[in-house]
Amino acid sequence: MAAERKFEHIPVLAEEAAELLDLPADAPARLIDGTVGGGGHSALLLKRFPRLEILGIDRDAAALEAAADKCSFASGRIALVRGDFARMAEFSSGIGWSEVDGILLDIGVSSPQIDTPERGFSWRSDGPLDMRMDDRNPLTAGRLLNQAPEAELARIFREYGEIVQARKLARAAVAMRETQPFGTTRDLVRLCDEVLGVSRPGRLPHPTLVFQALRIAVNDELGQLERALESGVRMLKKGGRIAVICFHSLEDRIVKNFFRDESTGCHCPPGLPVCRCGHRASLRIVTKKPVVASDAEVAANRRAACAKLRAAEKL
Ligand SMILES: C[S@@+](CC[C@H](N)C(=O)[O-])C[C@H]1O[C@@H](n2cnc3c(N)ncnc32)[C@H](O)[C@@H]1O
User: Fold this and answer.
1) Whose CA is nearest to atom 27 of ligand 1?
2) Residue (of 89, 28, 26, 72) closest to 53 by Cα position
3) Which is deepest, 83, 135, 199, 312, by most CB within 10 Å?
4) Chain centroid to CA 194: how far?
5) How confident is the model over 259-300, as pLDDT tens digits?
6) How far does residue 108's CA lie from ligand 1's centre (Å)?
7) Does the Cβ of 112 fall within 6 Å of ligand 1?
């Protein structure tokens, strides 16, 4: 049913990403769009670079349908694959690519995922506690809440939601599920209200953070990002670029630290007379500071407000 809805997602920082990817204007080039979503970024790139070929990856079947439709004007230049972007090397070799000129990751959820109550991503509407980007994944948010040990729930709330009262929340979740298993998003909102109370003015509402934490865990979002960055750098040609758009600080920190580590040589502790690690820089950071959306873009699309775009070039 969700797949039948119109897929409406406005690509964020699209012009800026296209510019930073610095693809050749009139020579053949290959790009992996690891989060093809509704195809917004890919369509723009296919139009701008007439000899560009794209491998578009997404976990979400509805997104891939929308991307195929949006990019149909260049259907011979885009291949779409359903799966995790951490497996980009495997998917690339499946179409005979061993290296690429560019990689784009636009991390997080799409507007249709958030706006479809049946998918359970939003605490503002009632729906099942699902939150899976890929509905073939056996782990749902409900299963996690109803079955994970208390310590694991506390870790998820603390690490992925940065919730100060993570242990108290986990303890209450376990007590609540013993009486009545969690069934819908409303049950989880009730838990948040009872344990965390009203959020302080100017802060994100508690349920936003709790839902974010579970979503990150269900979809292994941070692990996926770490593995994709490693794999992506190996796949880039010399001079090729990777651009990553993030929507919250946990992801952005991973990208920032990865780019910093990969743009520096030896990682040995200071004071060692000779390098033992043998690490060599593989990237040059292109964006010293993250690129953020203009006021005009934020006015047109509220989701762009927290976006940060970083790019780096393979040495
Ligand atoms: C912000 S949207 C991308 C929107 C897209 N750039 C556009 O212009 O339409 C993020 C997309 O990435 C997908 N996604 C998130 N994590 C993923 C992962 N680890 N592997 C594959 N797809 C992922 C989501 O399903 C979602 O469709």
Assistant:
1) 37
2) 28
3) 312
4) 30
5) 999 999 999 988 888 998 999 999 999 999 999 999 999 999
6) 6
7) no
Atom of ligand 1 nearest to the CA of 220: 19
pLDDT of residue 161: 96
Beta bridge partners of 246: 308
The pLDDT, as a whole number, for residue 5 is 59
- At CB < 8 A and 24+ separation, what contacts does 196-202 make? 196/163, 196/165, 196/169
224 lines ligand 1 (CB under 6 A): yes
With tokens 């004071």, the residue in question is 271
- pLDDT tens figures, 101-112: 999 999 989 989
pLDDT digits (tens, 9 = 90+) for 78-126: 999 999 999 999 999 999 999 999 999 999 899 899 999 999 999 999 9
CA–CA separation, 201 and 191 (whole Å): 20
- In whole angstroms, what is the distance from residue 89 CA to residue 232 CA? 8
Q: How far is the CA of 273 from the centre of ligand 1 (A)?
A: 45
Q: Is the CB of 39 within 6 Å of ligand 1?
A: yes
Expressed in angstroms and rounded, the spacing between residue 41 Cα and the centre of ligand 1 is 11
Give the domains, in start order, of the chain with CATH numbers.
Answer: 2-112+221-314 (3.40.50.150), 140-217 (1.10.150.170)
Ligand 1 center to 84 CA (angstroms):
9
